[in-house]
Amino acid sequence: MQAQGLYAGPVFDMARSQFEQVADHLGIASDERPRLLYPKRAISVSVPIHRDDGRTEVFQGFRVQHHLTRGPGKGGTRFAPQLEMGEVAALAVWMSWKCALADLPFGGAKGGVNCDPRALSRRELEAVSRRYMQEMIPFVGPKTDVMAPDVGTDETVMGWFVDTYSMHQGFTANEVVTGKPVGLGGTAGRRAATGRGVALTIGEAMKVIGLPPVGATAIVQGFGNVGSVTAEILSEEMGLRVLGVSDHSAAYFHPDGLPVAELIQHVKRHGALTGWSNELLTDPRELLTRPCDVLVPAAVERVIDADIARRLQCRILAEGANGPTTPEADVVLDQRRGEVFVIPDILCNSGGVIVSYFEWVQGLQRLFWSEDEVNDSLARQMFKAFANVVSRAQRDGISHRMAATAIGVEHVLLSKLQRGLFP
Questions:
Q1: Which domain holds residue 305?
Q2: Who contacts 24 (Cβ-Cβ below 8 Å, separation ≥6)?
Q3: Annotated binding-site residue? 201
Q4: 225 known member of a binding site
Q5: Domain C-terminal end among 300, 321, 348
Q6: Is the separation of the CB atoms in 244 and 284 below 8 Å?
Q7: Which residue, of 85, 132, 150, 260, is most buried by count of CB atoms within 10 Å of its CB?
Q8: What is any Pfam family matched here (predicted)?
Q9: Is the peptide bond before 105 cis (omega within 30 degrees of 0)?
Q10: Residues 27 and 150 reside in one and the same domain
Q11: Domain check: are 74 and 168 in the same one?
């Protein structure tokens, strides 16, 4: 299938390569493939704001809705430097397969603004958030496309989104986003949901390979919301020793384990890992290849390349980030299938969108659940998806990524066939 110029870039190339492999495996006709892969709608907007020094600056904003066949679009909104349409489109594609794999009534979507939120004051961040949502109002809504937090955004930004959208509608419509504060109609358990889902799938993988959690070791790359919550649950609730952690500012390693709770408090006070220790600093790339039982890449795309894949010394690779493993690395990992148990991203990090679905349902019904109810429902959904992926991989003799993506693609294809093509 020929690339479309609008979606050029290494991240979308990676998503297309994964899809083509699955389409070949499933025997999908060539004329059906473009409709499955390429987005229904791609939106690019200008986001002008007044900077604190009086200057006017224009940022570029994006939203891609991959498909709306199974329900509203669903996906995060990231504020990050160098963000471009191809990356956003790839993330929307992965969200489609992720939602379908988890059997959620959503299509995949993703969006964001090309900016560095760390370089913005709080007032400037609010201005970017509100103007971006204002530009998106014709294209989003509780039954059209439901936003959520992602890299560089949080529940505060979602609160600004809710207010901007609601002021335009003339009534409170807090179900337009998920991941918002509980006081604005958010759900208990949402902030920790992605990291908790990662930990749940790690626990299931440990059962499959016969690895007891207590005394096992882990390394977590990325110490934002997903990575820090995963590290906390692995160490505090499951009994693993976290040997290494990293973020954009620093990487630390100690063979006897790191104090995860102390690191979390340091990040809350200082905004990053840097400055916690000078003695335990290590090379962030080499951290990925140190010996451990569980490696969790929970930062950005394409960090596990073929070279890293050959040198991995983990027993479980749990993909907390979206697209952390390149197609070239997948070839290596497929050859190492008996050595490294891969939990692919669309399964491993799906806890966030699953609990986002719970939040959306609660918002529509105005009936809210306890955190225990949310976590219990999350565990059931994650365990079901995990079992389906492992069973499919064993049945067909394919990788876990191929199995997970095949299930997702099949669900979307079936929905499109059942609805037909209009007009």
A1: 193-348
A2: none
A3: no
A4: yes
A5: 348
A6: no
A7: 132
A8: ELFV_dehydrog_N
A9: no
A10: yes
A11: yes
Q: Distance between CA atoms of 196 and 354, rounded to whole angstroms? A: 11
326 annotated binding-site participant: no
Q: Which residues pair with 244 in a beta bridge?
A: 219, 253
pLDDT tens column, 218-268? 999 999 999 999 999 999 999 999 999 999 999 999 999 999 999 999 999
Quick one: 208 and 67 in the same domain? no
Helix axes 10-26, 400-419, angle to 10 degrees: 80
Structural domain count of the chain: 2
Q: Which two tokens stand for residue 169?
A: 């509608």
Do the domain assignments include residue 331? yes
Beta strand pairing call for 41-50 and 56-65: antiparallel
CA 174 to chain centre: 22
Nearest to 356 by CA among 159, 194, 184: 194
Q: Which residues are catalytic?
A: 110
Complete DSSP assignment for 334-372: HHTTTT-EEE-HHHHTTHHHHHHHHHHHHHHHT----HH
Q: What per-residue confidence (pLDDT) applies to 300?
A: 81
Together in a domain, 113 and 260: no
Phi and psi of 259, rounded to 5°? -80, 90
Amino acid at site 92: A
What DSSP string runs through 157-173?
HHHHHHHHHHHHHTS--
Token look-up 């986001």 returns 47
pTM above 0.85, yes or no: yes
Same domain, 162 and 245: no
334 and 222, same structural domain? Answer: yes
Q: Is 74 annotated as a binding residue?
A: yes
